[in-house]
Amino acid sequence: MRNKTSSFFFIIATTILASNLASAQVSIATTVRPLQLIAESIVGESGTVTSIVGRQDSPHQFVLTPSDRLAIASADLLIWIGPELEVYLADFLNDESRSGSIITVLENPALTIHKINDNIDAHFWLNSDNGIALAKEIKDRLIEIDQARSVQYQSRFESFVAEIEVTNRDLTERFSTSHNNYLVYHNAYQYFERQFGLQHSVALLADPETQPGIQHILRTRELVENSMPKCLLVEPESSMELVTTLTDGMDIRTVSVDHLGYDVLPSDNPYRQLLLQVAESFESCIN
Question: Domain containing 230: what range?
Answer without folding.
Answer: 177-286
